Amino acid sequence: MIRRSLNSLYLFCKSRRALTSWALPMETTSDTSFSTIANDHKSLCLTLAEQLIRRGLLSSAQQVIQRLVSHSSSVSDAIWVANFGIERGLDLGLGTYGALIKKLVGSGQHQLAEVLYHENVRSRGIDPDPLILTHMVICFCTLGKLEEASFHLSRLLMKSCAPCKATCNSLLQELYDREMILDAFDFFVWISNARVFLGFWCNRLIDRLCNRGYMDEALQVFDIMREKIGYLPTVHMYKTLFYGFCKRGWVFEAELLFAEMESQGVYIDKTMYTSLISEYCKSKKMKMAMRVLLRMLKTGCEPDNRTCNTLIHGFMKLGLFEKGWVISKQMIELGMQPDVITCGIMISEYCKEGKCDSALMLLNTMVGCNVTPSVHCYTVLINALHRENRFMEIDELYESMLNSGVVPDHVLYFTLLRNYPKGHEFQLAHMVLQAIGKIGCGIDPSVLSASTHMLRHGDLEQEIEILLGEIVKSNINLAAVGFSVYILALCMDGKTNAALNCLNRMASLGCKPLLFTYNSLIKSLCQDGLFEDVESLIAIMEEQGVIADRTTYLIMINGLCKQGDLESALGVLDHMDDMGMKPGVAIYDSIIDCLGREKRVLEAESMFKRMLEEGVDPDEVVYTTMIMAYLNNGRVFEGRQLFEKMMENSIQPSMLSYTALISGLVKRNMTDKGCIYLARMLRDGVSPNVVLYTSLISHSLKKGKFEYAVRLVDLMDNSQIEFDLVSYIVLVSGVCRNIPVISKKWHNLNRNNLRAWQMLFLLLHQSTLLPKVNYLQVHLSSSEEIKCFAVKLIQKIQDTRFMPNLYLYNGIISGFCWAQRMQEAYDNFESMQRQGLRPNQVTYTILMNGHVHSGDIDSAIGIFNKMNADGCDPDRIAYNTLLRGLCKAGRPVDALTLSYTMRKRGVFLSKLSYESLLNCFCASNLDDGAFKLFEEMIASNYIPRRFNRHWLLSMLCEKSKLREAQIVFDTMLEKGQAWNYGRKRVFVES
């Protein structure tokens, strides 16, 4: 085999990649190669090698060539020497190739070393020695070929050879550059155990591990550095570990490291003291936090505003407002003045506790002391006023904010949206952007356009874009806020593509989007189910240096859970863990809620335990979610036990958790147990609200206790508890379901059940100051009385502030349909469209069902056709409703045709629809079609009910279709269905 000369290999690699340049000799023949070497010793050695080759002493010649290659002063000299041997037919041997590869790698000629290795060692099946393997690991790492490097390192270890420091350093560097930090950590531990110490890697690994949240691994590197390598930790290393512990909430480990730093004489600054205080405040250990403050003062380290604000936040978050004020007074004694952050913390915590008036007083105090409140102060106050339905004060507070010269931001816009009905997103965005332009940039909005109320909807968007252009010219930072407001408005209006175009416009103007902007777009894409586009958007974020936060991941996980894609949601959670980002309690709550709804309660329980193990403090919301998961899956004991555990952990139950537990117990027919917790709730001073009443009304209606639901509504009215949107939707839909069938009477309930419901009602009544009234009397005893009640309820709903609302309109239309007042149903159908609400599948299905119940199947077909014509694709429920209507009308052929259409569109028949079809075909004496339907039902794993299968078998027997009859009979026996059939079994001869 003719081998390529090393000179040609060098030239080939040089053309592929620019390497360190050095001149090659013009002459490369064996006769002139000696003249290129200045050193006489080398000339004599080459002469000796040539003589040895001629005498056949090849092994000795190889050793001479190897020695010359090893001691060559440059790569070019080494290649000339090697070529000398090759041209004389000498097989250089493994030692020479190893020496040459070592020299190539050492001089940075890694690509040439790789080619040399592959063509002269690997391709010839030569087993490389440790020298070659060592340097090829370095070579492959430098070329970025990690898999090849790992493979050759494994071969080196199989030869029981420990890698050198250079080899280890190369592999560590490659792993580090690839962000494979845990692999780098594992390799570092391994080489340390093999007594290969790379102390300079300790600092780099600790930095990256702490940044990713791998604190156990970082601490292990720290211990290796001190115990095995003998290096003393630097101040930077101590601080890196300390802040890493604080970030993960490992306050005990942070405290130990803190003490060690003090013992080593390391100066502890106020930032470190504040961080430790913050962690104790987060874990609600205020005594420990105050102990750190005293320790800080004792060492002569004076606290600053941030330290005191952290303590104030900790006390006020626990509801200890007086102690928070004490800290604020101590600030003044220490020569500090409470700043806007101090007041912002107090206002925020007052609002969380529902003490809006106290928050407003503090805000006014700030203004009186010439301390301008931040936009955050106004935002939390507006949000709190909205919760208390104090809508007039919201507008006044917003005007006061503008008059104080405070520039609104995107978060305030998002908060204000809740105070406006849907459809006003752009008007509100225009209003906020005008304030940003006027206060923040000095732009006079009147110069740009006419007043907002004279603009049409399309013109308003154009006006916003013009205004944004002016803000960009004046202040690029406020422009980012303005674009964030506009993009949120587009997303809220369902214009995701327009929002993405706006994002591109920002980039073209050199305006960097805020994280809030990206989160708004990600939420909109998730709502549309476009999760692949979400991944692309996150990649764009990272390119622009915007890092996804917990809110980003929460939006993604919420979207995936709503789509029922739990596996992807768990994948996102694992990705967060890989990134070293600790998921918040809201993320766990979303996943636990989804697992509970899918009846995967054991996995929900495991996720709850994982949350605790990760050091995430559960709040009342996630406790309530887990309690609901237990109750909805029949594990009542575990649900009640977790409720008690929540109280043991100093989380006082509010209406949220009490409602979940009481409602869940009532739903599981354990009303007597629900009474126990209702009584405890009242003793705790928690008054029943609209949410509890709504849940009890809903369960009453679902269980057929119509009169009881009416009494609850009456009690709500007398207790002056105002209905909300959900209450009206639950009531109108529940009442309408009871119109066609008279609800169960109280005297049909068993004595224990009746006593429990009576006790529940009496407890609710005791929470009011109303006189005792017999609210349990039954006044509605006929379907006509229920219809009258439903019509009165509909009339009341039409006058509420919640109209127009699609859900309420659907409930109203349903009520009129069940009351067989179709004209009034159509009047509301047209009214909702005039008010800008587009009917959905539910609306059309309700109208179809109304016509079916009134026996007007042609009108039902007309509504179905209108549904398609209006671009509203029928869903499974709509198809099945019309199909059952056709069967009820005795039109089996039309029903069968519709079932074929359903299959073409990927919609499958429900069991009830199959039963209707089978019944219709039997009634029409269409035995062949009925038998085929029977086979389809069995193939779909649906078992026909006894009446239909008896009818089909009788019809087949009467028409002497004994083979089909035998198939029906045997199939049902195979399915384990008892016939109880009064005829003699017909046996069919095979």
How would the blueprint of this fold be written?
Layout: H1 6-16, H2 40-54, H3 58-70, H4 75-87, H5 93-106, H6 110-122, H7 130-142, H8 146-158, H9 165-177, H10 181-193, H11 200-212, H12 215-229, H13 235-248, H14 251-263, H15 270-282, H16 286-298, H17 305-317, H18 321-333, H19 340-352, H20 356-368, H21 375-387, H22 391-403, H23 410-417, H24 425-441, H25 445-448, H26 457-474, H27 476-492, H28 496-508, H29 515-527, H30 531-543, H31 550-562, H32 566-578, H33 585-597, H34 601-613, H35 620-632, H36 636-648, H37 655-667, H38 671-683, H39 690-702, H40 706-718, H41 725-738, H42 751-766, H43 783-798, H44 806-818, H45 822-834, H46 841-853, H47 857-869, H48 876-888, H49 892-904, H50 911-923, H51 927-939, H52 946-958, H53 962-974
Helix pairs in contact: 1-6, 2-3, 3-4, 3-5, 4-5, 5-6, 5-7, 6-7, 7-8, 7-9, 9-10, 10-11, 10-12, 11-12, 11-13, 12-13, 13-14, 13-15, 15-16, 15-17, 16-17, 17-18, 17-19, 19-20, 19-21, 20-21, 21-22, 21-23, 23-27, 24-26, 24-27, 26-27, 27-28, 27-29, 29-30, 29-31, 31-32, 31-33, 32-33, 33-34, ...
Q: What is the class of the domain at 875-989 in the CATH system?
A: Mainly Alpha
CA gyration radius, whole angstroms: 40 Å
* CATH homologous superfamily title of the domain at 875-989: Tetratricopeptide repeat domain
What is the makeup of the main sheet? Answer: none
Which structural category do the helix and sheet elements fall into? mainly alpha
Q: Provide the CATH topology of the domain at 875-989.
A: Serine Threonine Protein Phosphatase 5, Tetratricopeptide repeat
> Strand share of the residues?
under 5%
The termini sit apart by: 78 Å
Helix content: over 70%
**Which residues sit in consecutive blocks of at least 5 with pLDDT less than 50?**
1-38, 450-457, 741-748, 773-778, 978-990
Shape-level CATH architecture of the domain at 875-989:
Alpha Horseshoe
**Mean pLDDT rating:** 77
Q: Which term fits the overall shape?
A: globular
The number of helical elements comes to 53
The quaternary organization reads as single chain
Number of strands: 0
Organism: Trema orientale (Charcoal tree)
Protein name: Tetratricopeptide-like helical domain containing protein
InterPro entries: PPR_rpt (IPR002885), TPR-like_helical_dom_sf (IPR011990)
PPR repeats: 234-268, 269-303, 304-338, 339-373, 374-408, 514-548, 549-583, 584-618, 619-653, 654-688, 805-839, 840-874, 875-909, 910-944
